[in-house]
Structure formats: structure tokens, C-alpha cells
Amino acid sequence: MTPWDLALIEVWEAPRMPVPDFPRWMLEEAPSWEELAIGGRVAVPLRGERTRIMPEEDLPWQGGEAAKAYLRQLLRAHRPPRQMGRPFWRQQQDLGLLAVSPPVLIPEELLAGGVWVDLRRAYFEIYRPLTLDLQLSPESGRIRLGHIPFEAAEGLAGMSDARDAVIGHCRRTTSIIMRRGVVSQESRVGFWLQPHLWGAVQFTLHAVAADMIRCGARAVLTDGYCFPSRQEAQMAVAYLEQTWRLPARVKPHPEIRRRPSRNLLGLTPSQIEGLRRSRVWALGK
Questions:
Q1: Phi-psi map region of 245: left, alpha, beta (phi>0 left; psi -120 to 50 alpha)
Q2: Do 195 and 97 meet the contact criterion of CB atoms below 8 Å apart?
Q3: Per-10-residue mean pLDDT for the chain, 285 residues long?
């Protein structure tokens, strides 16, 4: 069985308590628990049996817990037992990479009738050929793969919340805790924290954005690029497939309700080329 299959079995068998009205339960009954870890639509007691309290319609599992179970299975399958304690200790020395945020370029005025190009499953397509324990060299854009591949990652392809949660777990440095009915935020370096993986994904998105701007894009929103005409957009789709081997599509013009902003890393041509070559090499390994 693949790590993804084992992960689904793990979350299916985990004890859970469905409640018809989860928001009401959180307000009226949850404070009776001394300590809870709280997600978007799930609560887990941190002491005793780790029963998941969830809305009935969310059963049998949420994408975030399926993603974490998948990461655990990868570690069990590919990491020697003596290294299970702190597998990413080297990468966790570079916490500054967690500060790299997605690319954004919103001009004062968007071109009327612009056509958008959207990367399909961008985060998933970028991290899938890499490894959980990779190391990134920001200066050169080179990525050195480790020993924990995203084996059988295709199982996540149809679950957008699970595939995005994989990269989310590798960046999360805080958790929401309820103690004696009071909700607070707790900061800590989590077990799965992998700054280099987060950095590799974000640097790649910035490199792709720089290429798209050179191709004529007028606006950038993380993994979407606005072009003046459909012809230019279709040429960009072909370029992304040929040069970056990233699937993309032309989509309707989204309504942007954000102030003009610019967040683009000033990557050099050598850094962009290093990131592109690293991706092509990882896909062909």
C-alpha cells in the first residue's frame, strides 16, 4: 500500500465525535475541556484520548489531518529510525525562509478586458517532484534533494484542501489552543517545520512570475498572471508547459479587490535559471 493509502486508513480509524452544531458546541460546551487544540472545523483534546470533535458533515476526516497522516507515513517509510527524532534540524536553522511570501503585482489600473493565465494546482505541482527534506540555496536557486520523496502524491491531487495542507504544515509555526475556555495563540517550532521546502516553492513562484512579466503580464496574483490579449495568454501557457513544465490554463478575468501592491523578489537571471533547472532535473530524476 502507498503512504497515501495508509494515511487514509489512519485518519479513518482515528477516534472521532461528530456534533450536529460545531460552532454552538465550541461556544457552550468546549470550555468544559481543560485544553484543546483548535483547527478551522475540528477540536482535539491534548490530554488523554485524542478524540477529534468535528461537524457531522466533515466526517470521516478533514484535509489537514489527512495531509499530516501522509507526512507521518512518508517519514516512516523513508527515514531511518535513529533519525526520526528531529529529521529537519539542518533546515530549521534557516527560519528566515518562512518570511518569503507569494508574488503579487497589482498596478494602479488593470488593463480592461485582460486575460488571466492560472497555474493549475500550483503548490502541488511544484513540491510533488521534490522531497520533504530538500535543501535550497537561495543564492544560486539550486535545490538539493533529500531522502523523503513525496511518494504516491497523486492520491492528493483530487483533494485541494489536503494537497495545500501538506505545504501548510511545513510552514506553520503557531497553533490555536483553548485553555479553560480561553482561546490563545501559541508559538513554537513544529515538528514538520521545513523552511527550505517553503522557500523552494515560493522562490519558484517568484521566478515564474518574473518570466511571465517578461512575457508581457501586467498583473500577478500568486499563481495567476494577467495579459492584455488572449493570444499573449495562450503563448504564456505554452511557455509555462515547455520551459517550466507547469500545467496552466486561460481563465476568466477575476475581480481584484485589493489596493495596488508589489511583492516581487529581485531574482537574478542565474537564480531563475537555477530554479528552472532544479525543477526539470527533479522531474526527470
A1: left
A2: yes
A3: 92 90 88 84 84 87 89 88 73 92 87 84 95 94 94 88 91 82 77 93 97 94 92 96 95 75 94 96 87
Could you tell me how far CA 196 lies from the centroid of its own chain? 13
Block residue for cell numbers 456534533: 19
pTM of the model: 0.89
Angle CA 38–197–271, to nearest 5: 145
Question: In 14-112, where does DSSP find H-type helix?
Answer: 22-28, 63-78
Question: What secondary structure, in 3-state letters, does 203-233 show?
Answer: HHHHHHHHHHHHCCCCEEECCEEEECCHHHH
Name the one residue in this structure whose C-alpha cell is 452544531.
Answer: 21
Count Cα atoms within 13 angstroms, Cβ side, for 122: 22
Task: Tell me how far apart the alpha carbons of residues 158 and 17 are, in angstroms, rounded to a whole number.
Answer: 26
Q: Nearest to residue 117, comparing CAs of 200, 238, 272?
A: 238
